[in-house]
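call fold(seq) -> tokens
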Amino acid sequence: MDKVKMTTPDGVTENIEKLGALFPAAVTEMRGEDGTLRKGIDFEKLKQLLSRDIVEGGERYEFSWVGKKAAMAEAARPTTETLRPVKADSRDWDTTENLYIEGDNLAALKILQESYLGKVKMIYIDPPYNTGSDNFVYPDSYTMDEEEYEGGIGLYSFDGKKLFKENNIGNPRFHSDWCSMIYSRLLLAKNLLSTDGVICIQIDDNEVENLKKICDEVFGIDNFMTTIVVKMSEATGMKMAHADMRIPKLKEYILVYTNGTRKKLGEVSIPKDKWDSEYKTFLEGLTRDDVSFLKAVRENEERTLDDIRMCDKILSKVSYISLGNAYKKYNISESEQQTFNFQNAWRIVQTVSMTGGAKQLADEKKERTHSVFFSIVTPQKKMYFIKGDYSDDISKPRIKILFADDYLTVNPCDFWQDIKTTGLDNEGFVDFRNGKKPLRLVERLIKLFTGDNDTVLDFFAGSGTTGQAVMEFNIREHSSRKFILVQLPENLDTEATKQTGANKKETEELIRFLDSIHRTHFLSEIGKERIRRAGDKIKAEHPDADLDIGFRVFRVDSSNMRDVYYKPEEFTQTMLGETVSNIKPDRTDLDLLYACLLDCGVPIHLPHTTTTVDGCTIHNVDNGALMACFDEHIPHSVIRAMAAEAPLQVIFRDSAFAADADKINVTEIFKNLSPDTKVRVI
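ret:
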């Protein structure tokens, strides 16, 4: 039991804990005046986390690299980019809650900060492994040129002479660039996780050590849950070509971190690959329905006396033989025995010892009954089935029955070797093999860490495995989980020119596949097509299922607003005419609407309807969470119609109101009809 502290609260400690919850990266250890270690705040790092610019200051013992401060500053720097809806590429736009975002994931994560703050239950990412052949390229603004980098790591002597230059996989910049890339994205991703959310990052040996240190900083070392080791290859073929020179790599890792609060994990079990030899007693004289009834009563603590009597009646008819004699009786050959065991697991048992009060109850009932098998119920309402022909001379006889079919599975723990990771060509219905992750792998993570209606985010979506995994899981588990996928539209033609060997061949196959379906040569097109085909297959197999197989496509693009910040002397008469509207001429109502949702913190997967009043289009998101009208001339009748719905927020074009008096009228209408509505213009 806890002791009463008998002291007033330590305000400093409480504040450190509060800051640590918000900014785990700023928490450090420091030695006090008494010499003891305690938690403290790294104010230099805290200043950087709260700044959009690089904060100057000496670096200290920590995991650091050239470009770390710049990456931190980049994560904090706002963006003017937005998401533009692409209805033509979408599926079931009006009803789906799934999202597919094309564009740089750094920008996408920034854009989603308001609308999806704390709303994602699980993040799964499979980022570039930095193998030296994956050629990861991300358009980060903090990327240094060669001169900047070499100056930063001291490749020049004090007199300016070049000391040396590394230009291979061992070059420190090779790791620094990767660390900067992942660091800024994880800082942003953390904000999207719910307080009980979990992030799972798959990686191999090249950067696992650096990634672990980065995650310890971003999510807090106390929030590290586990490292799952996944067997990803077999010791065959090319893997063994140079086994005499190096140890072949068969595994990858999944680092798992929580976001502060741990919750009960979903139950995951896998079939045993061979029969447990302890189960060697074969029961006769009962049916499968009998066993089902016995187990139902056993698990029901509200069981009645009649239920118990029925169990004993069933058990009184049961006899047994050894499993070996069952093989002989039913003419089971040696090659058939394993299959026979699993098929009859419902009536094959083992016995284990019991002690204490339960053993005493068994002894007492044994004296009163003539049956070999019977039941007992403890004062704690636990029910056990007993094999009662045991010797009274044995101190710990094996008497409690365990049915084999209750123990045919095992927990995979933190070493997963049961998932097939080869021959994945047929998964996903698209020609994408290199780097594809098994569906069962992602589905298991979904089962472990999410619940019904939760959202799963993957911002290195690749071929779209996570999207298909969510849909497959939903149909199998009768669930309604949602996904958000983000993928950089990598130009495969450009990639092919940089590649050689098998990688080049793989990319060329992707290009041919995209040509066959008349799609542009972008990696993101592979992901979208995979999700479409997976949805088609699921719908064909389950035509009556109420399942979301759609997705809304958005594209990262520049702001909808014109850049009109010119000096007065820079304006021409033509420019004056062009800047009458502050909105770019190629932007649609949908462009404006979804940019407003993102700006106002409204999720962009919510349902959206439109109505027309006096020639004006009114957009209504989630039954009044936000309403908007972007027409240039809006009569009062439209304003009143919108106010009558009492929305939480309404948005108009600024140019829709020619004079200040018009804006005042709008404000007054809402003040009278819907005073709690927030009125805004763009």
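Residues 570-681 form one domain.
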